[in-house]
# Entry
Amino acid sequence: MAKLFPKSANKLPVQIIVYLCVVGCIATAAAQYYMTPKYTRVGYAPMQPVPYSHAKHVGELGLDCRYCHSTIDTAGAAIPTSQTCMNCHNQLKAASPALAVIRESYQTGNPVPWVHVHVMPSFVYFDHSIHVNRGIGCVECHGKVSEMDVVTQVKPMSMGFCLDCHRAPELHVREKADVFNLDSGTIAATQGIEAARTFVKDWNIKPPVSCSGCHR
Amino acid sequence: MRNAYIATLFIVVLTFSILGLRNRTFTKPPMDVFPEWLFPGMKYQPKLTQQQQSPFFADGRSDRPAPPNTVPASFGPAGQGVRSDDFLYRGKLHDGSWARGFPPALTLDMKFMERGRERFTIYCSPCHGAVGDGGGITKKYGMGAVPTYHDDRLRQMAEGEIFNTITNGKGQMNPYGDKLAPRDRWAVIAYVRALQLAQTGTVADVPEDHRAELGLK
# Structure
């Protein structure tokens, strides 16, 4: 009887197993790299209906974050009303075509169609006020918005990102006066880790790490 | 077998050249790795949260504007009429005249002043300037006619009238009632009064044990 398989076929099962292992490794690495928010979300910088520049208003003029995001320390994040823009732009650049959308919104009362950049899933119950009132600076999650012409997501805002901080708040807290100062450093960086631990203890910072802390 | 490895390498290089590295910027909405149609879950729930769209309402927004002739509950304690304390919430006395001084419901202490300083720095100083002379940063960009606090008209103005100006605006100044809660408005007024005093103060006004801090003798 003639040989159905050449002799080299004896190695084939092993070769196939090795190949599948290699492919498995590559697929795992690719999923880790491409299917996590570090790749899918970081860098999202949508076109906004008004070319508002935080670099100009915060970096150059020195406006406080809270001038526009005025409910941040009581109720949570809010995109400012068009009246907020008109506080100054009823006189400054009052006829600028770039601000036509704002003027129309101010007159009609219809909202400006800003594009949501940092989107959380519905099952995440995140509250800004508790974070800014307990020493977590804006820059911690939003990056240096004061240097951005177009708001860009710079942190993954994945669950791992949240938990890194919830498990070790002493590495991320800053003084109350520095929370809205995007150029400030954390207490751990400026005064050392011991001072940061004391701050966490004094301010009774106990970030939840159980599921129900953030998911309800 | 070698061909299989070459094909795999080709696919890896192709994927890499299409997807690129992390940390690039893009304007299209982020890719959803686990899309809702394939992995149904609770990621996008129909519940309404602040500042969202909602087809349920005719104007298409989830935030409901206050109905006519109503006042948001945040303007006063729940269940208590806004007019229960006209002084605190409107700066007026019962006869309708502007109130002078500060509402009795408030405690004027250092904490209150610090709150006033903080709120003033955020909301007022961009135009009125850090010392209230009308020389804020916006002046450099062409904001005109911001009055200084340091003239007799404003020094004599009743606190209640200043409260009304913050709440409802005046002339070119838009209302700030949406940004400053009533108590914060009073804190700002207290700080404005302090700024006015500071401009006309003399060495004699500074308590003796604090003079050294200011370099005074």
Chain B touches chain A through 48 residues (CB under 8 Å).
